[in-house]
Each structure stands twice: as structure tokens, then as C-alpha cells.
Design a protein that fits this description.
CATH architecture of the largest domain: Alpha-Beta Barrel
CATH class of the largest domain: Alpha Beta
Number of helices: 20
CATH topology of the largest domain: TIM Barrel
Shape: globular
Distance between the termini: 24 Å
């Protein structure tokens, strides 16, 4: 069946750049044009609207997004006391263990975290509260005991050696795995469906799902793969593992994704040269050089796109240095397809200009999260609190990445920041350093065609061209020309030729 969508403006991000209608044949775009429209089985008139290619979010945690949106008010709390009040109310209304996500102390006037005693008084049942970045979790005594986190590295203690309720590293992963086991398969499926529905309501038609077996086990991914046909969008799956056989058995052409080489700035677990100004030395990276090189080497020779998470300057330097080492070890035949593989780095927040240029020479692909800068890059924000003003000023070099010809895509890291891509587009435009800002259309292109390229899908999506997937979003306010993107939402989202959202 053919469907004709008629609008005032169709932005193709291809040639010709503009149209007035899109003709869809089944799941694909047949034509984009101006003037007299062809006949179709169904006509959808959308006067006064602008059509954009569907957004591609390169970094999403579906289940986590669903969990977060069960209690979004935790993210707006402005003090430990307010967090405790919110959690107490939620705990009183629920049965069983309580697991919530989203608190962020960087915006509190007093950044003192709740104590273990305070957490114990909220509920006697196991309680887990994940920081917005997921790299720090607060648990009460019941949560500590139930998850057996006490026997793992990463239990933060006070000066007397007593646990504080704060968990990072292996202890944090153990806690998150335990809390996830208290969700039924049906619960997980519904959380993923809710998150996907939220995404299409914001014009996102493809996500790169970053499954984290260390945090949640393989069950979330298995459930996702089993019911992905129910979802209103396309899912590209990445698995944070070094086990090549696992991803080969799943039939995936990629490995790693959000596999952490370090932690986060907010949790003070990123690998940062010179340490943190407010907490002293940073932890070392999670991989030794030889171990990381073996993973890169084996993944590349297996024909996989290899990815990692790297935030701190020491971490991104280690990753690029190790890729250089692996490239030099390859023979001419093995090097032939190296750049075409587009091996990925997630975040890349503290990359120096030298590291950017070296990464560009290797053809590495970068997945950035522009909303991080909007949320934490302002004077006095999280970056400056942890790194000092000089290092904070040089974070997230978006313009430098683009000008060096990097393969660049963008995502939200939802639930860490909103899955709304227009918030990310606005963040690109409003970077704390004017020299690193992107123009509106550049930002949209990074979030669409650039993001599609990171998963080798540029022949299928990212622009509106004959033969590509019929993925697009329709707006009654033109997102390209509107002075402000605040509150701009699609009135219709189409994914693979299906109307999956209508306002």
C-alpha cells in the first residue's frame, strides 16, 4: 500500500534538499517531491508542518529509561532531604524491594548525600537509589545484605571503616543485578515498551540499545530481542561484553558498546589525569593496556565493530593509544578494512585536540551526548566542581570533532538525560564554549545521518531518499528555523511506514 504524506516542507538531508510531499510504499520511501503529488492508496494531509528524517539516538538504556520514568521526580529533587521524602512516599505505596533512578547532587545547595542510617529509616525493605549516571548507587542495610554487595570492591566506607551505603564498581553492579532480578520478564518487557513509546513521541525512530550484562545480566537483552517486533521503532543492539562468542551467537556484527573503560565524572570514577579537585586522585581505568589491546585485536579480526565507554582524559588517551598499537600490529590485509569498521567510542568527553586528531587518523567513530554539556557544563556545574574551571572549559569539543572529519553521532544516554533529540540539538547550539557550537542543521544532521553511520545504516536511514526506510517525524513548528526549540514536539512519527505516534 502506498501512502502520501503532504506537508509544507520536507527536509530530506539529501538531494534535493527540500520537498512538499513524501510517497511511502510499504516500509520505504518511494519519492520525495514538490508540486503535483502522485496518486496513493492513502493520503495524509499535514498543512503547515515540517517533516524531518527520524532521529537516531546512539546511546539508550531501554529498561533503565522505563524505570526512571516510574519516578521522574527523583531527578528534580534539590537536596538529600527531598530525595528521602520522595523515596519514602514511593516506598509506602509499593510492595517488595524499591529501586529508583535519577538523583543528581551536583545541583543541590548542600551536596551531602543521605547516610546509611537515613536510608534505613526510609524502609526496612531492600532499597536502591541509582545516581543519574548509573555509576553510583545508594543502598540501605537491607539492600546491602540482599545483594551481597558487601563482599565486593567498591563499597565506600567512612573514616572509621563503616559502610556509608554508597556503592561503586563491582559492588554497585552486584546491587543493580540483584534489584533487576526482582522484575518479572513481563515487567521488563513493559518497561522497554514504555521507553520505546516515549522515544517515538519525541521523533526518535531508531535507538542504539546499550545492554549492560554486568549491571542487569543478559535477561534484559534476551527479552528485548524476543519482543522487538512489538516495539514502535528500530533497535540496534550493543552488548557491553568482551566475550566475542556471546555476540557471535546472537548474530550481532558489533561488540562492546557501553563497555566501561572508566566510570563517570559525577560519581568521581572517571579516569582523570591529575585527579579531581574536590576528591583527590581518580581511580585507574578498568582495563590494563594489554587486556584492552587483546580485546580490540580479537574483535577487529572477528569482523566486529568494537566499542567502549571512555570519559576521562586518561581513559580516552588509553583507548586511542591502544587502537594505535593494534593498528600497527596488523598486516596490510588486516588493515584494509580498519577505517571502514568505524570502531566506536562512547562519550569521549575529555578528549584533547591531539587525541581527537589521532582518533580521526584511525577512522574511529564517536558517539557524543550533547545534553551532558547543557546539564553540567555551565559555570559552577558538575564539570567545574570535579575538574576545576580550566579543564571544565575544554570538555565536549563538538566542533573540533566535526571539523576533523570524525564519524560523529549523538545520543541521550537515556535515562541519564532526556530522550528528546531536540533538547540535544539545542545543546549543540548552546555549548558553553561558543567555538564548539554547531549550527541547527549541522546538529540535526549529526542526530540523524551521522548517527545512522555509526551503526553502518546510512543506506537505510538518516535521510529521506528513495529506497530508504520510511522513518520521519512531523512538526507543526519548523525545528530548523524556529528561534527556540523549547517545547517543540512532533505531531506525528512514522517508523518503517507505520504511524507509531500521533499527538
Amino acid at each position: 500500500m502506498k501512502t502520501l504524506y503532504r506537508a509544507s516542507r520536507v527536509v530530506t538531508l539529501s538531494y534535493p534538499a527540500m520537498g512538499e510531499w513524501v510517497l511511502v510504499d510499504g516500509r520505504h520511501v518511494e519519492r520525495v517531491g514538490v508540486g503535483e503529488a502522485p496518486e496513493a492508496d492513502r493520503v495524509v494531509d499535514l498543512p503547515g508542518t515540517t517533516v524531518l528524517p527520524g532521529f537516531v539516538d546512539t546511546h539508550v538504556h531501554l529498561t533503565g529509561t522505563g524505570v526512571h520514568h516510574q519516578a521522574p521526580e527523583l531527578g528534580s529533587a534539590v537536596s538529600a532531604a527531598e530525595v528521602l521524602t520522595v523515596v519514602r512516599e514511593i516506598a509506602a505505596a509499593r510492595q517488595g524491594p524499591v529501586y529508583l533512578h535519577g538523583w543528581d547532587e551536583s545541583g543541590w545547595r548542600d551536596r551531602t548525600l543521605p547516610t546509611l542510617g537515613e536510608l534505613d529509616r526510609v524502609t526496612e525493605r531492600p532499597l536502591g537509589l541509582a545516581r543519574v549516571d548509573g555509576h553510583l548507587i545508594l543502598v540501605n542495610s537491607a539492600g546491602m545484605e540482599a545483594s551481597e554487595a558487601a563482599g565486593q570492591t567498591g563499597v565506600v566506607t567512612d573514616d572509621a571503616g563503616a559502610p556509608t551505603g554508597r556503592l561503586t564498581g563491582n559492588a554497585g553492579q552486584a546491587a543493580k543485578r540483584w534489584f533487576s532480578t526482582n522484575l518479572s520478564d513481563h515487567d521488563v518487557e513493559e518497561l522497554q515498551l514504555a521507553a520505546a513509546s516515549l522515544a517515538v513521541a519525541h521523533g526518535v525512530t531508531t535507538i542504539h540499545e546499550m545492554s549492560m550484562p554486568a549491571d542487569r545480566g543478559m535477561r534484559d537483552l534476551e527479552i528485548l530481542l524476543a519482543h522487538r517486533s512489538r516495539l514502535p521503532l528500530d533497535v540496534v543492539s550493543y552488548v557491553a561484553t568482551t566475550d566475542i562468542s556471546t555476540v557471535m551467537d546472537l548474530g550481532l556484527p558489533r561488540i562492546g558498546g557501553d563497555l566501561p573503560v572508566d566510570g563517570s565524572i559525577g560519581a568521581r570514577t572517571a579516569s582523570v589525569s591529575g585527579g579531581f579537585v574536590d576528591r583527590g586522585p581518580s581511580p585507574e581505568g578498568y582495563f590494563g593496556d594489554d587486556e584492552l589491546a587483546q580485546y580490540f585485536h580479537d574483535g577487529h579480526l572477528a569482523g566486529l565493530q568494537v566499542g567502549v565507554h571512555a570519559i576521562g582524559d586518561a581513559a580516552v588517551e588509553q583507548v586511542v593509544r591502544t587502537w594505535e598499537r593494534v593498528y600497527q600490529s596488523l598486516d596490510s590485509r588486516q588493515r584494509r578494512h580498519f577505517r571502514a569498521r568505524r570502531h566506536r567510542i562512547e562519550h569521549f568527553e575529555m578528549a584533547s585536540l591531539d587525541v581527537i586528531e589521532r582518533a580521526a587518523m584511525l577512522g574511529l567513530a564517536i558517539s557524543v551526548q550533547p545534553t551532558f554539556d547543557a546539564r553540567w557544563g555551565f559555570p559552577g556545574g558538575l564539570y567545574e566542581q570535579g575538574l576545576g574551571s580550566d579543564r571544565a572549559a575544554s570538555m565536549n569539543r563538538f566542533r573540533d570533532l566535526l571539523s576533523r572529519g570524525m564519524e560523529l553521532g549523538a545520543g541521550s544516554d537515556s535515562p541519564i538525560t532526556t530522550i528528546d533529540p531536540l533538547v540535544g540539538v539545542a545543546a549543540f547550539e548552546a555549548h558553553h564554549d561558543p567555538s564548539q557550537r554547531l549550527r541547527r542543521e549541522e546538529a540535526v544532521r549529526v542526530f540523524t545521518l551521522g548517527s545512522a553511520r555509526l551503526a553502518h545504516q546510512e543506506d537505510k536511514k538518516g535521510s529521506l531518499e528513495p529506497g530508504k526506510h520510511a522513518d520521519f517525524a512531523v512538526y507543526d513548528v519548523d525545528p530548523i528555523d524556529s528561534p527556540s526549540l523549547d517545547g517543540v514536539r512532533p505531531v506525528l512519527t512514522v517508523s518503517l511506514g507505520r504511524d507509531v505516534y500521533a499527538a
